[in-house]
């Protein structure tokens, strides 16, 4: 991972199976200067109630190609074995495990079988013991060098109430898995929580976004619109700058005026 926060614009199903809308979302994600854009993929009839929001496999290949032309990282959350196989054929190098699959051993073993370069693991509804089990199934214990699994603190509610975010859980995950391997998948309204998570040490932020919250779809109302996405990215980058190195000492600006101020303050 990069030293700075890796920011993922979660397009999810907000493009409503429209390729032009997906392309437009990629354009706006680039303007917002996020690191990656993510979609979701499943085979026909997997979720009948969401069929009108589903991209065909061949359409997802076009979305990946368009993202590549715009030099933005693209990846996808697969919800079945067929989707995993298809995305592996496309050469996807970041794999997202959704919260609902945390206890699905067959799904996790399938992800492991493709030997993924990077895994983002959402942990909504899970406790630390369940997270340990997932890491064991994915083979974290056999890895040499830095972990390729990023644990994303998450609260599975759409939208998530502020009082249920429990941001301090990030500390526990960092203590267990290392700061560079912990992030936040956020479902709250607004941009405050992701910004706060970065200040607490999150190295990855995933946030839903949309072209317009008035568009049809189950995730639109909790998603950021393009200008809000830009504001979130800018605020996160400012927080990164403000965090510094943690050593208490005078800054260069203070050193220029320190002697004069202290002299004038003598009694």
Topology:
Layout (H helix, E strand, L loop, with lengths): L5 E7 L6 H14 L3 E6 L15 H13 L3 E6 L2 H9 L4 E4 L7 H9 L4 E5 L5 H10 L11 E6 L14 H9 L4 E5 L5 H9 L3 E5 L17 H18 L8 H13 L3
Parallel strand pairs: 1-2, 1-8, 2-3, 4-5, 5-6, 6-7, 7-8
Helix pairs in contact: 1-2, 1-8, 7-8
Q: What would a concise description of this structure say?
A:
The protein is α/β, with parallel strands linked by helices and 267 residues long. The chain has helices spanning 19-32, 57-69, 81-89, 105-113, 128-137, 169-177, 192-200, 226-243, 252-264, and strands at 6-12, 36-41, 73-78, 94-97, 118-122, 149-154, 182-186, 204-208. Helix 1 (19-32) packs parallel to helix 8.
Protein model, in words:
The chain has 267 residues and is α/β, with parallel strands linked by helices. It has one domain: TIM Barrel (Alpha-Beta Barrel), CATH 3.20.20.70. Helix content is 39%, strand content 16%. It contains 9 helices and 8 strands. The protein has an 8-stranded parallel beta sheet. Helix 5 links the parallel strand 5 (118-122) and strand 6 (149-154). Helix 1 (19-32) packs parallel to helix 2, helix 1 runs parallel beside helix 8 (226-243) and helix 7 packs parallel to helix 8. The N and C termini lie far apart (53 Å).
């Amino acid at each position: 991972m990069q030293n700075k926060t890796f920011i993922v614009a979660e397009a999810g199903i907000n493009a409503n199976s429209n390729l032009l809308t997906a392309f437009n979302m990629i354009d706006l994600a680039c303007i917002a200067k996020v690191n990656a854009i993510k979609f979701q993929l499943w085979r026909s009839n997997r979720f009948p109630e969401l069929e009108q929001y589903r991209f065909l496999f061949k359409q997802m290949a076009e979305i990946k190609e368009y993202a590549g032309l715009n030099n933005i990282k693209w990846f996808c959350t697969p919800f079945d074995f067929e989707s995993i196989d298809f995305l592996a054929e496309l050469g996807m190098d970041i794999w997202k495990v959704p919260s609902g699959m945390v206890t699905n051993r067959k799904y996790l073993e399938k992800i492991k079988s493709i030997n993924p370069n990077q895994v983002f693991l959402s942990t909504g509804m899970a406790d630390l013991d369940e997270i340990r089990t997932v890491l064991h199934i994915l083979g974290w214990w056999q890895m040499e060098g830095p972990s390729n699994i990023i644990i994303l603190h998450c609260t599975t509610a759409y939208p998530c109430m502020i009082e249920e975010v429990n941001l301090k859980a990030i500390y526990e995950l960092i203590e267990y898995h290392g700061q560079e391997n912990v992030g936040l998948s956020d479902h709250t309204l607004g941009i405050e929580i992701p910004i706060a998570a970065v200040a607490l040490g999150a190295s990855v932020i995933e946030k839903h976004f949309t072209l317009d919250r008035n568009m049809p779809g189950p995730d639109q109302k909790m998603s950021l619109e393009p200008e809000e996405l830009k504001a979130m990215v800018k605020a996160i980058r400012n927080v990164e700058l403000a965090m510094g190195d943690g050593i208490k000492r005078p800054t260069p600006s203070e050193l220029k005026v320190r002697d004069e101020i202290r002299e004038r303050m003598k009694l």
